[in-house]
Amino acid sequence: MVQGFSREPGTQGPLTEVPPEGLRKISLWAGLIAVGGFLFGFDTGVVSGALLYVKQDFDLNAFEQGSVVSVLLIGAVVGATGAGGLSERMGRRGTLGLVGVVFLVGTVVVTFANGYVVLMLGRVVLGLAVGTASATVPVYLSEISPTRIRGRLLTLNQMMITVGILVAYLVNLAFASSEMWRAMFAVGALPAVALVVASLWVLPESPQWLITHGRADEARRDIASVTNEATADELLARARRRIEAAREKEAKAANEAEAAKDEAPAGKGVRRLLTPDVRPALIVGLVLAAVQQFGGINTIIYYAPTIIQQTGLNASNSIFYSLAIGVINLVMTLVAIRLVDRAGRRPMVLVSLALMTVSIFLLGLAFVTGMNSVLTLLFMVIYIAAFAGGLGPVFWTLIGEIFPPSVRAEGSSLSTAVNWIANFVVSLAFLPLAHLIGQGETFWIFAGICLFAFFFVGRYLPETRGRDPEQIEEALQSRFGTRAVHGSGPEHETPSTHGSAR
User: How many angstroms separate the CA atoms of 370 and 69, rounded?
Assistant: First the structure.
């Protein structure tokens, strides 16, 4: 609400502190917005347990099992790609309400599916909702976030995703003895209804969206409700200056491209992403988006019970032990929330990738050499802890911080789409690849990707904590050996104006 009305996470913050009452109100709104993240986690996690029984009822082969998981991701790519335009037309609140409705529709279709094809259709519908939520929730959170708690509110989305996954595991366990996979999916209707209700009657619209659509009076009223009249006026003025500066910069870039007869794709934002001053951010954003998934995380999330079952445990026990993964995922995400504004983004990602590399290599070794199920579960838990305490939540913060404000929406959306595409490829290919070359050998491939990512981050990712967009751009240019080109842009702020040493 008072972050300075950024279009995406990580932009410049307010000039004043928010009173405790205002912070509580904002925290309530953030929690309700993050229900979209909860549904994201629930619908991606519930399939892990349900699949053990769906494959029996519908007699699914390895490819069909993989497609039931991965088809959701096709819908998610479409949803994430279209979320930016949708939220610009409908507003953040309206889009989130629509997400809840689509979640409900998809849940009904999946719950009453009478075969493989209908089940796939329902999963696609759920994917549309998941993808739209994944792109909309971080933006919405960023636009109501005071900078003092910016990192914590942005990682709240990831925390709610992990809560959703854990709840999905608990639901799977509750219905495992009766093998009621339809009930596992049906539980998702409850938070979907809550999201619709919150969007209709509780949540405010994003001030950024209101200002850019000529409704500044409404924005001023909402800001004043959590700060005061003077702060609302000042932040409105700053927002207008920032928006005007961004428009001037875009116009200048468009004129330069026209003069040079630039052949880049049409569209202001997309063309700007390809310019020399933005290209380093684009490379970092896309690589991080890809390796976050190609490092193998969702093979563990989606297939945890199936993987554990391979060690000799029965289906019910494998679901029970997979709860350890859900718990550690949540606990370490909470740790990351505490550290992200203290330790910094870069060291957290580096430590995370180092531990992920070692643990998933050992997980592969456990399968190759036939270690017992306790050691296998231990390596899985260490891997999840390493991911959830670093690369998992910090990635979503970074893609909101590394792009200049004028192209942050486009850069973040493109990175999110690549993340979902990589997620789709890994989830679809995992079971067939594991069947072809072996489960342990497949985990070793993931270990190699994590090792590559470690060296990439060490070379090209600067620290973003406590830096404004111009400083981050300069740091990226320095690491890529190029020079930042600044025209007129958002007014410069030093970290000291942010109210916290980021």
Answer: 27
What secondary structure, in 3-state letters, does 361-402 show?
Answer: HHHHHHHHHCCCHHHHHHHHHHHHHHHHCCHHHHHHHHHHHC
- Three-state SS annotation for 418-457: HHHHHHHHHHHHHHHHHHHHCHHHHHHHHHHHHHHHHHHH
Q: Provide the 8-state DSSP code for 17.
A: P
Quick one: tokens of 25?
């109100």
Match 């405010």 to its residue by tokens: 204
Q: pLDDT class for 253, splitting at 50, 70, 90?
A: low
Instruction: Please say whether the beta carbons of 399 and 281 come within 8 A.
Output: no
Interatomic CA distance for residues 348 and 355, integer angstroms = 11
Lowest model confidence (mean pLDDT) among 11-20, 284-293, 304-313, 430-439: 11-20
Helices (H), 213-344: 216-224, 229-259, 268-273, 279-294, 297-309, 315-339
Exposed/middle/buried for residue 473 (C-beta within 10 Å: 0-12, 13-18, 19+): buried
CA–CA dist 445, 393 (Å, integer): 23
- Residue 207 CB contacts under 8 Å (≥ 6 apart), including other chains: 1, 5, 143, 144, 219, 222, 223, 235, 239
Task: Report the range of poorest mean pLDDT among 117-126, 136-145, 234-243, 247-256.
Answer: 247-256
